[in-house]
Specification:
Layout: E1 7-13, H1 19-28, E2 37-44, H2 50-60, E3 65-70, H3 77-86, E4 91-94, E5 100-101, H4 105-116, E6 120-128, E7 142-144, E8 160-162, H5 163-168, H6 182-192, E9 196-208, H7 216-219, H8 222-239, H9 244-260, H10 271-288, H11 291-295, H12 299-309, H13 313-326, E10 331-334, E11 337-340, H14 365-370, E12 373-382, E13 385-394, E14 396-398, E15 404-407, H15 412-416, E16 422-423, E17 436-441, E18 447-454, E19 460-470, E20 473-478, E21 490-492, E22 498-504, E23 510-516, H16 523-537
Parallel strand pairs: 1-2, 1-4, 2-3, 6-9, 10-14
Antiparallel strand pairs: 4-8, 5-9, 6-8, 7-9, 10-11, 12-13, 13-18, 15-19, 16-20, 17-18, 19-20, 19-23, 21-22, 22-23
Length: 538
């Protein structure tokens, strides 16, 4: 008589050929051994031959593979629940029918559960074929909880669960959720588990992105996804009291599921759907978006959530559409604070206080880089002095007294050819504030800055950078030339003539190069060349 298996692998199957074959092969080849393994696969009304493929494996491995057939239910919850009803293993493990496992996956996870007395074990997952899988959880073999790790960003059911825990608490998948039905199951299991362990030193799970994008998650519409995340958050709120622990879990839902509802496809929705999405997101913001979550969320997301909460559908639509087309709006600098001037900013009809629009504890280098570009460049010579005069447009308004333009420090490979803005470390050396600088408002937003930078008679190749303080940090921003015509190379100096040129580097940034007109090979040669140069000018 066959003894109780150590692990039952549950496979919910709907039209997953040819991926299904690799999935089943990866289960049969598990190093844990067939005598310790049970596979329960439920065919959810497949029409592509998946059912026949399951029957072939059940016929070949009758003591291991159990196949159930049923009409299509519309999602993975029903077949997963049916498999749980007949599972006999000490542990249950869920695998997507289009994914596959590493050969030692089950053995390593069961060993970890037994050694640590864990009720849940998370094996390292990676994505294949372009599938994204969050990796920050897998920093070592360790025990974790929902509130001290990246576990909230890894809430799929593709984990090892002690079946005793599952049955004790009657854990099942909600069958009326087309997407996200694994999250209530996983969250509750993690809340009730004595211990949760992570296996990071071996790739247990390979998540495959299907070429046909037929996964139901990709097909669900905005309102269906909204209803599902509402259910998930309500279920979680019933399990975890309000406070930092709940906030840690809900950060995932605000950063991920709710953010995805307010992306560039939102303005294309019909007016009624936009209003319903706005109302639904706003209700969740009202209920669960604490001050701590608000201040820890980037200003782009925070503004969108705030506009939804205020019922400002048109402002929300405009904020998303304008950022999609033109990039982030200008930052208003005031008394050391920075505000993103999205629609609704300081609009009494919208009623959001400034905190929703303020840049808080986040790096905005990318936005500053995107909003800064060269308008013009030229040379300005007075006697023996030559200066580069540049006019640039930047995405900041208000108090720009901290801003100045300078040639970047460091050699070309380290500094002048960098591709984007960067936040300078607190202890980083700042360039000298040479030359003059003026600022004025641009007609279409932002600020026009004009700088006159004296050039030294030396060999150098340096990028032209804007330096500006935003929300307590200094940013170094290279000037994008965007096809602007560069001034002709200029020769200056008589006793020691030099040549200067303005060029665009491989990253599209402005670089100023100065060099001696001639390269002296000896002291005598240098004097002779200067003498010849003076005689030619007479």
């Amino acid at each position: 008589m066959r003894r109780e298996p150590d692990v039952t692998v549950v496979v919910a199957v709907y039209n997953t050929m040819p991926y299904l074959t690799e999935c089943l092969d990866s289960l049969i080849r598990q190093s844990i051994g067939l005598e310790r393994l049970e596979v329960v696969a439920v065919d959810d009304g497949s029409t592509d031959g998946s059912g026949a493929e399951l029957d072939r494996y059940a016929e070949r491995y009758p003591d291991v593979v159990k196949v159930l057939h049923q009409p299509n239910s519309g999602g993975p919850a029903v077949p997963s629940n049916r498999a749980l009803d007949v599972a006999t293993g000490r542990f249950v493990y869920f695998v997507g029918a289009d994914d596959h496992l590493g050969e030692e996956a089950l053995e390593r996870m069961v060993s970890a559960a037994d050694a640590n007395e864990s009720d849940v074990v998370v094996g390292k997952m990676v994505g294949t074929n372009g599938r994204y899988v969050h990796q920050k959880l897998y920093t070592g073999n360790r025990d974790v909880t929902l509130d001290d790790s990246e576990l909230p960003f890894t809430l799929a059911n593709t984990k090892l669960f002690r079946r005793e825990l599952v049955e004790k608490h009657g854990l099942r998948f909600p069958e009326d959720m087309p997407v996200g039905s694994d999250q209530p199951f996983t969250i509750e299991a993690c809340v009730r588990a004595r211990k949760i362990s992570v296996v990071s030193d071996y790739t247990c799970y390979y998540a495959v992105k299907r070429g046909d994008a037929s996964n139901i998650t990709y097909r669900a519409d905005h309102l269906a996804r909204l209803r599902c995340v509402q259910r998930i958050m309500e279920h979680t709120a019933a399990l975890i009291p309000a406070g930092p622990r709940r906030d840690t879990v809900f950060k995932r839902h605000f950063d991920w599921e709710l953010t995805k509802l307010l992306q560039k496809d939102f303005p294309a929705l019909d007016a009624g759907t936009r209003r319903q999405v706005c109302e639904g997101v706003g209700a969740l913001v009202d209920a669960y978006f604490t001050d701590g979550l608000r201040d820890g969320t980037g200003v782009k997301r925070r503004v969108r959530f705030g506009l939804a909460r205020s019922g400002a559908v048109e402002e929300l639509t405009r904020a998303i559409a304008e950022e999609t087309e033109h990039g982030a709006p200008p930052f208003l600098l005031e008394d050391g604070r920075a505000f993103a001037a999205y629609p609704g900013f300081r609009d009494p009809a919208v009623g959001l206080d400034d905190r929703w629009y303020e840049v808080l504890r986040e790096t905005v280098a990318g936005r500053l880089s995107a909003g800064t570009r060269l308008e013009s460049a030229d040379w300005d010579q007075h006697g023996t002095e030559l200066a580069c005069v540049v006019t640039l447009r930047t995405g900041v308004t208000g108090d720009t007294s901290s801003a100045f333009v300078a040639l970047a420090q460091g050699a070309m490979p380290q500094s002048a050819d960098k591709a984007a803005a960067r936040k300078l470390p607190k202890d980083a050396a700042r360039p000298r504030r040479d030359g003059t600088f003026t600022a004025g408002a641009a007609e279409d937003g932002g600020t026009l800055l004009t700088a006159r930078i004296p050039l030294a008679a030396t060999r150098s190749k340096r990028g032209v950078r804007l330096y500006v303080d935003v929300a307590g940090s200094t940013y170094e921003i290279p000037l994008r030339t965007e096809g602007r015509p560069m001034p002709l190379a200029r020769r200056w100096g008589s006793a020691d003539p030099h040549r200067v040129a303005a060029t665009t580097n491989t990253k599209g940034r402005l670089v100023i190069t100065t060099a001696p007109l001639w390269e002296p090979k000896s002291g005598v040669g240098a004097r002779l060349r200067r003498t010849l140069s003076r005689s030619k000018r007479k």
